């Protein structure tokens, strides 16, 4: 197939957060099997410009919009004013306004000079663009089920205006996403709860929803001898509300119960942009590490990786990264979304109330043999089902179906 991939950011194997890693795996898997054209963007985050240049230099038909800030203060303020005006008048969420900005011109140029069998759009912020007419389209919705807008709260008076704007922006997602889903031949999601969220909000779209768990470029399992005894790891990007909730729940309610059973247990919270309430968790038995350049050493040192998520949608890449590295993982039913459906139950420990989560975690800390056996099965499970090539096969099946529908 000749596929046009429309991306909100540059694929990057070592990118910050999960999104660029997913895009890297998608691109890697599809590139081996199909002829690709990529349209996307890059910005200020470390390595983005270099990753875009490397893809263009590799011979890939890739076209990226440079979103880095202009050195001109006048230009920067003009761009901010234009974006703010568009946000105020369009009813689109801020991320949709900023993600698609500048892309339409490049997309039109590419569409005018090439013919495609399919257009694949990553995430709903890119859905408002115009795509080549008459070509089948597939939207990948990364998170159909979202936390409530009321979850954006601010304790300090000075922060309340920003929090109010965030609540307004967050509330826009419902109508924006529903309109996006209607535009495409098929919409694929990563897990059953997101499929159900779409069906609940737009029952007529149920026949056009597909569940397709993502993959990543898998690292080799780490040496279990490098574990730091009794160390528990939680990883998260704290601009994502469910990660804030999970970290607070873990530190305040679950860890005290773990330490009753295993007094030496220590929690390490590693993530980008931790808010004040997460940073304040640091203290007796809890370490908070902000904006670490890499999580590799922290995963290697962890005896148990925890993902006690109870809000939000989508698959959790933190779970897959830990599985791939051969770690024992304790998570909730929501955190296990996307890891079932491949036959035997996934090699995860799943519990949903604080007491059961604490008991399961303490038991793993106390049983080295069971912990390492679970980790060995986890690594093999990840390699079998979540490699770029395995994901590409699933993507190909969805794309072929969209072509048949078109």
Describe this structure in words.
The chain is α/β, with parallel strands linked by helices and 406 residues long. The protein has two domains: 2-216 and 388-405, Glycogen Phosphorylase B (Rossmann fold); 224-385, 3-Layer(aba) Sandwich (Rossmann fold), CATH 3.40.50. It is 44% helix and 16% strand. It contains 15 helices and 13 strands. It has helices at residues 19-31, 48-57, 73-90, 94-100, 103-113, 160-171, 173-183, 192-201, 241-261, 276-279, 296-301, 317-324, 354-366, 368-385, 388-405; strands at residues 2-6, 35-42, 61-66, 118-122, 137-140, 186-189, 209-211, 231-237, 266-272, 286-290, 304-307, 328-331, 349-350. The strands form two sheets. It has a seven-stranded parallel beta sheet with strand order 3-2-1-4-5-6-7, with helices on both faces. The radius of gyration is 21 Å and the shape is globular.
């Amino acid at each position: 197939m000749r596929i046009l991939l429309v991306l909100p950011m540059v694929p990057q194997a070592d990118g910050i957060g999960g999104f660029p890693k997913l895009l890297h795996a998608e691109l890697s898997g599809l590139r081996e099997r199909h002829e690709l054209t990529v349209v996307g963007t890059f910005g200020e985050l470390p390595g983005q410009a270099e990753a875009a240049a490397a893809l263009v230099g590799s011979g890939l038909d890739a076209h990226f919009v440079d979103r880095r800030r202009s050195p001109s203060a006048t230009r920067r303020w003009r761009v901010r004013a234009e974006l703010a005006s568009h946000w105020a008048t369009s009813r689109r969420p801020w991320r949709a306004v900023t993600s698609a900005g500048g892309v339409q011109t490049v997309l039109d140029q590419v569409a005018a000079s090439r013919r495609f069998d399919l257009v694949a759009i990553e995430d709903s912020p890119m859905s408002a663009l115009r795509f080549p007419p008459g070509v089948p389209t597939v939207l990948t919705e990364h998170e159909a089920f979202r936390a409530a807008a009321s979850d954006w709260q601010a304790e300090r008076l000075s922060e309340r205006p920003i929090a109010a704007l965030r609540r307004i922006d967050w509330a826009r997602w419902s109508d924006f996403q529903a309109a996006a889903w209607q535009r495409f031949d098929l919409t694929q999601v990563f897990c059953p709860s997101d499929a159900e969220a779409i069906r609940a909000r737009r029952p007529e779209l149920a026949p056009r929803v597909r569940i397709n768990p993502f993959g990543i470029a898998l690292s080799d399992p780490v040496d279990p001898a490098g574990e730091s005894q009794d160390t528990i790891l939680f990883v998260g990007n704290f601009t994502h509300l469910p990660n804030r909730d999970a970290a607070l729940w873990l530190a305040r309610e679950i860890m005290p119960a773990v330490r009753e059973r295993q007094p030496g247990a220590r929690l390490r919270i590693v993530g980008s942009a931790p808010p004040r309430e997460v940073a304040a968790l640091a203290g007796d038995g809890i370490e908070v590490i902000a904006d670490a350049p890499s999580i590799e050493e922290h995963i290697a040192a962890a005896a148990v990786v925890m993902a006690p998520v109870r809000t939000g949608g989508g698959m959790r890449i933190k779970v897959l990264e830990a599985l791939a590295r051969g770690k024992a993982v304790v998570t909730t039913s929501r955190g296990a979304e996307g890891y079932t459906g491949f036959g035997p139950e996934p090699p995860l420990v799943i519990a949903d109330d604080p007491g059961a989560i604490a008991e399961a975690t303490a038991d793993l800390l106390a049983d080295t043999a069971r912990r390492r056996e679970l980790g060995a099965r986890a690594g093999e499970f990840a390699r079998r089902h979540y490699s770029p090539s395995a994901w590409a096969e699933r993507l190909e099946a969805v794309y072929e179906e969209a072509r048949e529908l078109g």
